[in-house]
Amino acid sequence: MLVQLRVICALTLGVLFSSHAAAAQDCVPGGGGGSVPAAGSGSGSWPNTLPATPFVSTYSVTVPPGATQLDRVELTGLSHAWAGDVQFVLTDPTGGRHNLIHRLGFPGSTFGASCDFAGTYSIRETSGAAWPSPCVDPSDIPSGAYNQAFGNWPSGTNGILNTPLSAIPISSGQWTLTAYDWVNGESGSLTSWQLCFRASTPTNPTEVRVPTLVDSGVLSNPGSSPATVWQHLLQHPGAAWMRAYFSSIQLPPGSVLRLTSLLDAEEQELDRFTAEMWSNGSAYFNGNQILVEIVAAPFTSANRVVIDGVGLETTANCSNAPCGALSPDGRVPSGELWSARWVNGGCTASIYNTTGGFVSAGHCFTPIGTVLAFDVPLSMNDCTMRQPPVRDQFPVIETVRDTPGANCVPDWRVGKIGLNNDGQTHFERYGVFKPLASGPPPVSSTVNIYGYGSSSNRVVNGVQQLTVSQVTTVGAGHLSYSGGTTTGGTSGAGVVWNNQIVGINSCCSGAGNGIASRIDQATFVAARQEMFPHTVHAPWDSPFCLNANSVTVPITVCNPSDAADSYLLTFAPVPAGPMCSIAGPTGYTVIGPNPIGPIPSGGCVTVQVQIARPAGLNALNLTSCYDVTATSVAGGLAVTDRGSVQDRRDLCVHQLVNPFDGVVAAVGVNTPVTFAIRNDSVVSGVVPYRFEAFGPSMEPSGAISLDGNYFGVATSGVAMVPLGATGQIVVNVKYRWSEPYDASDLVMSSDVDGDGNFEPLTSTMLRSTSFAAPAVYCTSGVSTNACTASMGFLGVPSASQATPFTLTANGVEGAKQGLFFYSLSPTAGTPWSSGSTSFLCVKSPTRRTPPANSGGSVNQCNGSFALDWNAWMTGSPTGLGTPYVAGNGYYVQAWYRDPPAPKSTNLSNALQFTLTP
After folding, report:
1. Model confidence, pTM
2. Strand 839-842 to 638-648 pairing
3. Is residue 313 within 8 Å of residue 451, measured between CB atoms?
């Protein structure tokens, strides 16, 4: 069963296996048996008056060396009719009394479970099974391991506490077992009993959440500059590190919440968008003091923050978790940047794609808003962990898991992380991921497991280490292996063979032995596909200008999966309703092949679709909606988006330059977008306009700034376009973080009738590229005729080669032969030749593109070269810089003949660019 997590959840594994597996237990026999109750057949008035003649057995216990916790209580040969009558209480040597079993099924009145005790029972804290329910006579409860059952006992009544076994204080001395029979009529007996102890199992990593209530109140900044309007010092003496949790963050546009560690000055800023991404929690900060500040934007009010908790670590356990540990340990420190420590999951997670997808174990404690930490530093000498810098921490924004079954299989989880504090994806930060295998390794294969397990070596406790194991069994849904240490926080670690993840470390089955859930389980594969589906985007309010009978709209499909795929586009009209004035269009023509593709992994393709004017779309501002579905040819997964068309007989608006590709903008770079607007009916010529950027959620986008405004804020103005004329409006778009597969919408609206309502005119798709925009560097040479050839570009350099990326060199000597040449690294610029004004700006080795003629006129500077780099890549699948993958960087110059010049040639300046997906 797949469970979508939107709330905190936890899961305990079964009796035989555990990721934080049980330590080796030392049992101390000697507890005597007898009749239950000692005499008669029950009495008492629940819960205040205890039965008068309970079974009581006391024996002397010497706690085994190294034991730190009570693991279980064994009851041998227990018999008693009507199990709901009986309560078992354990008394420790200090006199503390603790419930073990309290009246199974007892509702507080009448009777409890009518089935019978008739076997040997191991009473555990959480690693056993639940007692059978319903449980009725004449059934016997089977022998086995069962969890403590407190029922509805009011803890503390008659000094009897509902204490978990691991929390019962242990010491050598007299221990007593008491059995109360609350109801007259039945009786039984116990042959013997004993206590079993263990060393405490480290829960690695550990985070304790301490309730803390701090309310800033509602604050304003009436000034014209940003101002710190509130400060509070969160502190907890003895904490090794801390994290803040918030029940409310209210920040107007431009205001930020700033958190700073006073130990190492690490800093995080959250605004209204990023606070949502971090699920109202902060990053982890080293030390025991965090300065929390509200920096309010000018002229803002209603700034408010409410802190409701602090997560921290004060102490750590330096022992290896005995299950899964070998002696000697055998692990070695490692530094794989695709493997993450999951602090409040107590586990390890592995990044497997470029979009922040991770896999881990299903049983890991994983609320949304937890954090994956990478490049983790060594721990302190007292075993407490240290946290990496804020930029190496990423919030968990979504997870799906399968419920673990018998022997820990299935036991998997797939999830997604957001951006770090610098607005980077994991791939932008590190440029790595570990791909997933399509099948299992053979038996006897050597596998590597990179996990953040507990360790008795203090400085690597909770730090990434590599263990090497041998596959012993390949089951239908699992792998077994032996020979390596997998303890504590190693749960969820990727099991790697042939440089691919073949399984998820789930639990151990003894010293040096482990079990992994196979990565290729059908439900696991399906969950990953659903977590990272392909995307399809249709534009809003595509306009029918004047009396046009059709409109051509761009439909974009992106493929973030691990393999190329093709997609079939289908269309369906949407009935009239909210936002859709009339029934949807019925005529659709895809211009080009359908299915579209194959689209390479990480690529996007935009196709043109002609939509016929729907019947009834015959008046200004009427709208008609449609659904477009893209269905994967390989896997059958279907994804749908909604678009619309409208009647615009007053203003005809469309984007210039790349109207059918939308806008692909580099992160951090202002990208101008130009719209042509033709005035077909507005006599005054005054066109008030507004631009808004909406994300995939149809809410203002926190990733996009328009005309330098704060992210998520509209920009507006007035254009003067005389009746019958055409004008242009330019808006600058800038992304602050990458959303390469999520299409947003730049919506242009106008209020030409002056009623205060802005009606949409048109929309354009926005996508980001996660890499910097191409940039010119170095110095152009001066030719014989004083020409200075200058590099330029059009489009986006893309590993998917979906759309053209054209290299240009303008200002070249006319009618000259020339070409582009490139390398994989730049130089600062070395003289091309003695006496030459040109500089070589790319570093050997280099590769040439085909020669071309610059055109233009002899002795003039009107020549140029152009090359579609993406097409060049398609025709050059081998050679320097191949394979062409996202993240590859290239450095290009133009070379052309100039016979009177030194070396008879000259060079342009240079262009550097990086391939996007």
Report:
1. 0.65
2. unpaired
3. no
∠ CA 698-701-707 to the nearest 5 degrees? 130
| Omega before residue 328 within 30° of 0, cis | yes
Q: What is the DSSP string of 715-780?
A: EEEEEE--TT-EEEEEEEEEESS--TT--EEEEEEE-TT-SSPPEEEEEEEEEEESSPPPEEES--
311 sits in which H/E element: strand 300-313
User: Torsions phi, psi of 471, nearest 5?
Assistant: -70, 125
- Token pair for residue 193? 């009993």
Is residue 441 a contact partner of residue 306, using CB atoms and an 8 Å limit?
no
By C-alpha distance, which of 681, 683, 676 is closest to 649? 681
Higher pLDDT, 882 or 417: 417
Q: What residue type is assigned to position 397 of the chain?
A: I
Residue 362, phi then psi, degrees to nearest 5: -70, -30
Question: Sheet of 726-735: strands edge to edge?
Answer: 651-655, 671-679, 726-735, 704-706
**Which residues on neighbouring strands pair with residue 726, listed in sequence order?**
678
pLDDT score of 23: 31
Which helix (H) or strand (E) element contains residue 373?
strand 371-373
**406: helix, coil or strand?**
helix
Distance in angstroms (rounded) separating the CA atoms of residues 917 and 911: 19
Specify burial of residue 850 (Cβ count, 10 A radius: 0-12, 13-18, 19+). exposed
Can you tell me the distance from the alpha carbon of 285 to that of 373, in angstroms, rounded to the nearest whole number? Answer: 12
Query: CA 409, 410, 413: angle at the middle one, nearest 5?
Result: 130
Helices and strands of the chain, counted as H and E runs:
4, 63
Pair 494, 449: CB distance under 8 Å: yes
- The tokens describing 1, both together, are 């069963």
- Token pair of 682 as six digits: 């507005």
Q: 844: which DSSP letter? A: S
| 3-state per-residue secondary structure call for 98-119 | EEEEECCCCCCCCCCCCCEEEE
Helix (H, G, I), strand (E, B) or coil at 429: helix
Q: Is the peptide bond before 138 cis (omega within 30 degrees of 0)?
A: yes
- The DSSP-derived string for 515-567 is EEEETT-HHHHHHHHHHS--EEE--SSEEEETT-SEEEEEEEEEE-SSS-EEE
Cβ burial of 198 (10 Å; 0-12, 13-18, 19+) is buried
The answer to whether the bond into 47 is cis (omega within 30° of 0) is: yes
Q: Give how far the C-alpha of residue 292 lies from the chain's centroid of Cα atoms, to the nearest Å.
A: 25
**Res 827 pLDDT > 70:** yes
pLDDT in tens, 571-627: 999 999 988 999 999 999 999 899 998 887 777 888 999 999 999 999 999 999 999
Burial zone of 755 (CB within 10 Å; 0-12 exposed, 13-18 middle, 19+ buried) = exposed
Cβ-based neighbours of 338, under 8 Å, separated by 6 or more: 350, 351, 352, 430, 432, 433, 434, 494
Q: Residue 46: CB partners within 8 Å, gap ≥ 6? A: 103, 106, 108, 182
Cβ count within 10 A of residue 252: 17
Alpha helices in 805-853 (DSSP H): none
Q: H or E stretch including 427? A: helix 426-430
For residues 95 and 174, give the distance between their C-alpha atoms in angstroms, rounded to a whole number: 9
Q: Which long-range contacts (CB under 8 A, 24 or more apart) does 876-881 make?
A: 879/847, 880/822, 880/823, 880/824, 880/845, 880/846, 880/847, 881/822, 881/824, 881/847
Q: Give 457's contacts (C-beta < 8 A, 6+ positions apart).
A: 329
Q: Please tell me the distance from the alpha carbon of residue 608 to that of residue 230, in angstroms, as a whole number.
A: 53
Q: 146-187: per-residue pLDDT in tens? A: 999 999 999 889 999 988 887 788 889 999 999 999 998 889
